[in-house]
Amino acid sequence: MRSHFSDEFEEKDLGLEVTVAGWVEDVRTLGSLVFITLRDSHGLSQLVLKKEASSSELYETCRKLSKQSVISASGTVQRSRSKHVDYEVKITALETLSRAIHPLPLDPTGRVEAGLDVRLDARALDLRSPRNQAIFKLRHHALQSIRSTLLQQGFLEVSTSKIIGQAAEGGAALFSVNYFDEQSVFLAQSPQLYKEQLTIALDKVFEISTYFRAEKSHTTRHLNEFTSVDIEASFMNEEQAMRVCESIVISCIKELLNTRQEELNTLKNDLKIPTTPFDEITYAESIDYLKSMDLEINYGDDLSDSSLAIIAQKNNSFFFLTKWPQQLKPFYIAEDPNTHLTRSFDLQYGPLELASGGMRIHQKEILIERINGAGLPLESFSSHLSVFDWGMPPHSGWGFGFDRFMMVLTGMKNIREVVLYPRDQYRISP
Predict the structure, then answer these.
(1) Beta strand pairing call for 318-322 and 279-282
(2) b/e for 333-360, b at 16 or more Cβ within 10 A?
(3) Whole-prediction pTM value?
């Protein structure tokens, strides 16, 4: 059986016969000694072999091991003289399970830097880097934290279809896919209409899944395939939805700081718990502020990346942008009849938009009016609108870009760093 690695050995393990397995990170020959640094996803182990105490065949096998080859080694735990590990394994037997062929496409130790495209082309090997392992361990735990927080608040996890028959969601372009009998269908860009429908029976639902957008936005924060966290809840208004959004951010950061400090230290990301409640800035206040900075912008204009960067200068942590004009939000967002502004919000981390949501329209007549006003084909929404005849409760929700949130948690500047196999208009492999 494979044991824990030497960074987990204790005093009581001295003299213990163990077997360790992993990939070879380093091989060093010092006089008659061969030192092997062995690593797996949990840590590293130092192996040592003395020429005089082994067969010539074992000695040559150890000395000629190629880096990144996978081996299994048996031996005895002893104290180490290294300042990096307290214990090491004195080798008595070694088997090469899989030999790495050189030259490798990259150095997974990171000593020789490789460009992001090179790393993504050899992603599986790239993930042997402790830095990259830290990213995806944090991703795993962040997902578990978000799921746990929503379950504790009474949400039910659901899974909706990713194949839709009509381009009914509006907004960003949808990917068209050939279906049976030359029929065209689309890949979902969000679960929006489904999760709204589910509130008539399941009350509070959430989904964590992959979605698709056919946008040619080749930036450091856009992908065509992405992971989104979505919620929808009946009898919830936009303020309550904002608090739920706030709670998953706070709970996740607290969880990682309390339990995953090793990975955060590896990434050198100085993550801090933000103060709550998050600041709220209305769209109108944002426009006024931008005008005070002598920017040419008018009420009704969308907030560009450069505008958001300026707004973020005085709000460099998490904050909400609220009360957007109707023309800047999706057709299904409800309007305040007194102000004629939408009951909507975006969650920002500095200039980076993380989430968008608000209260939805639950009256069929108003929704039909908004669909027509947006210039969308009403017939595409027939099945969705029929649900509103069965008793649709008031409801609110949001979509949360999990991959972008991972950029915040890890300190990465490119969204491709935090996605195992990122997909954009130029990358569809490996």
Answers:
(1) parallel
(2) bbbeeeeebbbbbbbbbbbbbbbbbbbb
(3) 0.95
Token code pair at residue 416: 């491709």
Q: Give the tokens for residue 350.
A: 């500095």
Dihedrals phi, psi of 396, to nearest 5 degrees: -140, 165
Task: Note the CATH number of domain 125-418.
Answer: 3.30.930.10
Burial category of 214 from C-beta neighbours within 10 Å (exposed 0-12, middle 13-18, buried 19 and up): middle
**Rounded CA separation 326/330 (Å):** 8
> 6-98 — its CATH code?
2.40.50.140
Given a cut of 80, whether residue 37 has pLDDT beyond it is: yes
Predicted confidence (pLDDT) per residue in 47-103, tens digit: 999 999 889 999 999 999 999 999 999 999 999 998 888 999 999 999 999 999 999
135, 418 Cβ separation under 8 angstroms: yes
Q: What residue segments make up the domains of the chain, in order of their start?
A: 6-98, 125-418
DSSP 279-320: EEEEHHHHHHHHHHTT----TT----HHHHHHHHTT--SEEE
